[in-house]
Amino acid sequence: MPVESRSRSTIIDDSTKQIYGPTTSQYFLEEDLFRNKWISYPIDTVIRNFHHFSFSQRRQNLYQDLGNIGTAIRPIYQDVPDAIGATSGFNAYDLYWNSMPPQFFNTRSPYTNLNVILGGKGRSLTNIMYSRNINPRWNFGFHYNGIFIDKQIQRQGKGDRNARAEAYGMFMSYHSKDSSYTALVRFKRLYHRVFEYGGVRLANVNDFSLSELFEENAQPWLFSAQSNDMRRSYHLYHQYKVGEALQVYHRLDSDRQRNRFLDDFSSEPNGEDFFDAVVVDSADTSDEIKFNTLRNEAGFKGNLLKLFYNGYVAFRNYSMTYKYFQDDGFYLPTYDTELYVGGRVELQVDSLIQVRGHVESLLDERYRISGSIDTKWFSAYLKRSVSSPTFLQQAYRGSHDIWMNYFSPVEASEIGGNLIYNSEWLKVYPGIRLSTFRNLIFFKKGDFGIDQTVLPVQSSGYQTIASPELALHIRPFKNTWLTTRTIYTRILENADDALQMPELLVNAQLSYANIWFGGNFDFQVGLDLHWKSAYYAYGYDPVIQQFHTQQDFASPSFPLVDVFLSAKIIRGRILLKYNNIMAAFSRSAQVPTPFYPGVVNVFDFGFDWSFYD
User: Fold this and answer.
1) What is the C-alpha to C-alpha distance for residues 13 and 16, in angstroms, rounded to an integer?
2) Residue ranges of the chain with per-residue pLDDT less than 70
3) b/e 75-91 (16+ beta carbons within 10 angstroms → b)
4) CA distance to 58, 294, 333, 473, per residue, from 89 (Å)
């Protein structure tokens, strides 16, 4: 009997290994469920571009940071705002917050994923995901995301951080036996800290060579400054299905944001030269704002043949708390309730054509509208919004800054699209994007006749941009791909020099991919190239966590070339990557933000492993 028992146990273990895997643990998205599309996706095990682990590379290098992972980051190309109501204006770390996982899961066995990046010069990322079904209709899970990035300037040793962020969250999904009721719940929290150094301090900013930014003894401006961004969110979505043609739903979002800038002025030997003004005279700098919102959205939706429709009403309460601003008696409404009305439509003409639309209004001059069409042969979209100025743009008082403005709402419009051609060896996607802005608000560095040199400004005219682009996927040989994306940008109108962006941006990759050893070794090896033409990139003010226009420093064009190998072995993925091979010969790199050098040549290793039991 014992022998038979062991034999049967072995059979069960072998069967378990064969049955449970990426297709039995699947995830779904709230947006699909909302649109009555019950779509499940298998766990991602793809190795193509698995080596793109930095937040900018994941988004095709269309973002500008301070040269290191985890630092302040902004899109290179000005976009149409999604929010039309009140916002804090502190958005330098939005990308990290929005990058937290949005999935909900349905697992037939416990699912665990461990993703770790061990980058050169103390650059590490850790991501952990766990989910399991409590029963077939009820799932629970949690995630942890860590960013641990050492300084690249005057690093004193391992653990001397430039950026450190820790985020975690929990999620749960439930549906009734007949699926008439569905509920999704999510909680997430982020505490993001950046130990600011203010860029490289040069002896003469008017006469220097770029190589000075990459010298071993390059000196920072700041030694004890810190920016931090703490965010917390509770989210609930639930719906009741009356029938295919009608469902009612409620969505609740409670969000909190706190931003701080901290410094010990007495320990800053260059403080008097770096800080342009002193507004709050104190040895210890401790600037802070808090921004809270509570949004309740209720509505109806359903499907009528091929048409999905939705209408809703939303109430959004907000409050803004300044540490110093109100104490001086300035007046600005810092709490209120906004009323939104809106609707969405989606028409699935057939399997090849889909049309979408969304409109939302605050029942005054502020609104947003968007639409898109996707077909096998082309895709196109349009967006327009009239949005409120942010709180930071309108009024602020801190240790080194003060202003009070009554800006007008910002108007933004964008239209774009691309053609699609696919064949066995060639894929071509020519496209164009046209954008225009009116009453654009931006931070500007200049001479304003006062001590402060960086202030928010509202443009008195228009900004108009045309950006044609071309994406190519060419297979010159079997298992070999050359992919490129080139964006050419022409600023047709730029009142007040409000926009700054490169004329050319190029991403390219030459890679070889194959599966060897009977399907047990799936790999991709190749070269990545990223290049931008020289331009006056936005500068950065760490005190207010804002990028600003400037005309003093032109970020040079520099080809960033990486060599990589990504592979999948059984249920694990690994990456090996050598960053910036050009620096091995020139000891330099990109300078994405004035006086903030990028990472030079380093070696990165990472792995991703999933468990299904």
Assistant:
1) 5
2) 1-18, 326-331
3) ebbbebbeebbbbbbbb
4) 24, 17, 16, 39
In sign, the C-alpha dihedral spanning 64, 65, 66, 69 is negative
pLDDT at 541: 97
This prediction has a pTM of: 0.93
Alpha helices by DSSP H, 341-492: 391-394
**What is the pLDDT, as a whole number, of residue 14?**
41
Strands (E), 446-559: 454-458, 462-477, 480-488, 490-494, 504-516, 521-532, 539-541, 546-548
Q: Which residues contact 281 (CB under 8 A, 6 or more apart)?
A: none
Residue 284 per-residue DSSP state? E
User: Left if phi > 0, otherwise alpha if psi is -120 to 50, otherwise beta: which for 422?
Assistant: beta
Q: Give the integer Cα–Cα distance in Å for 612 and 608.
A: 14
Cα 261 to Cα 72: distance, rounded to the nearest angstrom: 13
Within 10 A of 478 (CB to CB), how many other CB atoms are there? 8
State both tokens at 510: 């030459």
Return phi, psi of residue 57, to 5°: -65, -35
Interatomic CA distance for residues 338 and 557, integer angstroms: 45
* Dihedral angle over CA of 78, 83, 86, 87, nearest 10: -60
Kindly tell me the number of DSSP H helices and DSSP E strands found in the chain.
Answer: 6, 37
**Do the beta carbons of residue 85 and residue 388 sit within 8 Å?**
yes
Q: Report helix, strand or coil for 148.
A: strand
Please report, for residues 34, 438, 466, 467, 487, the alpha-carbon distance to residue 493 in angstroms, rounded to integers and kept in the order given: 40, 11, 10, 13, 18
Paired strand residues for 274 = none
Backbone angles phi, psi at 186, to 5 degrees: -145, 140
Check: CB of residue 177 under 8 Å from CB of residue 84: no
The token duo for 292 is 């809270």
Q: Can you say whether the dihedral through the CA atoms of 19, 20, 22, 27 is positive or negative?
A: positive
Range list of β-strands (E), 195-334: 200-201, 219-220, 226-243, 246-264, 284-304, 307-322
| Distances from the Cα of 470 to the Cα of 353, 436, 560, angstroms | 23, 21, 20
DSSP code, position 318: E
Tell me, what amino acid is at 356? R
Bridge partners (DSSP) of residue 304 are: 307
* Nearest by Cα to 469 from 492, 490, 491, 488: 488
- Position 331 scores a pLDDT of 64
Q: How far apart are CA 48 and CA 27, in angstroms?
A: 20
Closest by alpha carbon to 408, among 349, 368, 365?
Answer: 365
What is the Cα–Cα distance from 503 to 60, expressed in whole angstroms? 16
Over the Cα atoms of the chain, what is R_g?
Answer: 26
What is the edge-to-edge ordering of all strands in the sheet holding 25-28? 41-42, 25-28, 104-107
